[in-house]
Specification:
By secondary structure, the protein is an alpha+beta fold. It has a domain of 95 residues: Ribosomal protein S6/Translation elongation factor EF1B (Alpha-Beta Plaits, 2-Layer Sandwich). The chain is 43% helix and 33% strand. It contains 3 helices and 4 strands. The chain has a 4-stranded antiparallel sheet with strand order 2-3-1-4, with helices on both faces. The chain is elongated. The termini are far apart.
Length: 143
């Protein structure tokens, strides 16, 4: 029997993909994972967000985070399918520590994400306060 490992993946889809296409895409992934003795633990939709770097003049994408367990050959097949698909802008698979359960990993991940979002919000509030405190420049008149 093939060894099963824990993985997480971040997948960014084209912002123009419909919800039906997204569902079909992840059903196909789930079937691929199942064919490699694995199963999907969870799938989070982060929604549409800006990309750090535009890809083919696309500056936004629909972000997904998923955790699953499967055999090592599964990642090769998933990445092959992602490279073929026109809907996938970017993806990243990470092998997780098998000593930590996937549910515990997701719980820790959500805590870190919550802290990160809190810091981003605080930074944005400070930036807004700085912009509000800035005096508007008066135009100089020349004679």
């Amino acid at each position: 029997m093939e060894k099963v490992n824990n993985y997480e993946a971040i997948i960014i889809l084209n912002p123009n993909t419909t919800e039906e296409v997204q569902k079909a895409f992840f059903k196909k992934n789930q079937a691929t994972i199942a064919s490699f003795s694995g199963e999907v633990n969870h799938l989070d939709v982060w929604g549409q967000r800006p990309l750090a770097n535009p890809v083919d003049k696309i500056s936004r994408g629909i972000y997904f985070h998923t955790t699953f367990n499967a055999g090592p050959d599964c990642i090769s097949e998933l990445e092959r399918q992602f490279n073929i698909s026109e809907d996938v802008i970017h993806y990243m698979h990470t092998r997780l520590d098998n000593r930590v359960t996937l549910s515990k990993h997701v719980e820790n991940f959500k805590e870190v994400l919550k802290e990160s979002n809190k810091r981003i919000e605080e930074r944005e509030q400070k930036a807004q306060a700085r912009r509000a405190a800035k005096k508007p420049r008066r135009p100089t008149t020349r004679s």
